[in-house]
Amino acid sequence: MPEGESNVVPNYLQETEVSQEWKEVIATLPKEKGWVAKHLHQYQGFWHTTRQLQGVLSCQKHFKAHDTDVLIVSTPKSGTTWLKAWTFALLHRHKYPNTLQNHPLLTHNPHSLVPFLELDLYINHNNHSPPNLASLPSPRLFSTHLPYVSLPNSITQSSCKIVFLCRDPKDAFISLWHFTNKLRPQNRGAASLEEAFLKFCRGVSLYGPFWAHVLDYWHMSLEEPNKIKFMRFEEMKLKPNFVLKELAAFVGCPFSKQEEEDGVVDEILKLCSFDNLSNLQVNKNGKLPSGEQHEAFFRRGEIGDWKNYLTVEMTQQLDTITEEKLGQHGLRF
């Protein structure tokens, strides 16, 4: 699909009615013009669409974490699809030993196998009908874009593992701009780079501000390194073998020496590679229940793509913000 062409607007971005339970809460929140949806609402310091926020509030109220859960957390457009594939393959490698022949990732999009809490599981549920997740086999694997302050208490108070992924904000912004333009209704046209850039710099983007989102998880990963692993997209790209083995150890299923000798690490990396996943028929032609075409999640997956779009002034502005917000805390991209 050409960049900028409209797609079916996913349900978490649609301007549909929210349940009465949350309507009054949402009505009191600050709001701004959205990138795809008409409005973004600021809740606990971060921005959400109306429907998405219903999922956030329901998830906060009803989700009960298990100590054995694994939760993938990411800033939007930071390699979430790739990390979901990695983690699913790691946790289930003994169940599906024929990695390159008979594996769910060959016939299912990673987002179908690792659901978002607030965007998939809780978005359509109100106080009277939360999803029943208690009987799912352990370890349960979920994902979210929620900032740390908005995680359900059961997550922060349990021993479950949190794997956080972020990316250079310049690349994250460009990827988000392309992605949201694919989802915008045709009658609204594509958002200009300049318009989106101003919003992103102000922090008015899905789950933004980007820098506050990243900084909170950075601080918490330093305080609780056994609970929260802080990962960068760039490290996944540059040293995948090393990072995958680190991830396996963190989530409690390290590779044995025999597995490494048998090439299991390399098989998982090949299965989950951008080239392999993006060329599967399911990811070329499939669609998520929420409405997005699977192919929308596979654009380029490269480091430094921002150089093809940002002006010198834009680059300097983003770098300055990043240094001010993160650099002083020892976090640099």
Automatic annotation (TrEMBL):
Chain segments annotated as transmembrane: none
Entry keyword annotation includes Transferase: yes
GO molecular function: sulfotransferase activity
Family: Belongs to the sulfotransferase 1 family.
N-terminal signal peptide: none
Stored Pfam families: Sulfotransfer_1
EC code: 2.8.2.-
The entry's keywords: Transferase
Record-annotated Sulfotransferase domain positions: 67-328
Lineage, broadest ranks: Eukaryota, Viridiplantae, Streptophyta, Embryophyta, Tracheophyta
InterPro entries in alphabetical order: P-loop_NTPase, Sulfotransferase_dom
Database matches in Gene3D superfamilies: P-loop containing nucleotide triphosphate hydrolases (3.40.50.300)
Name of the featured protein: Sulfotransferase
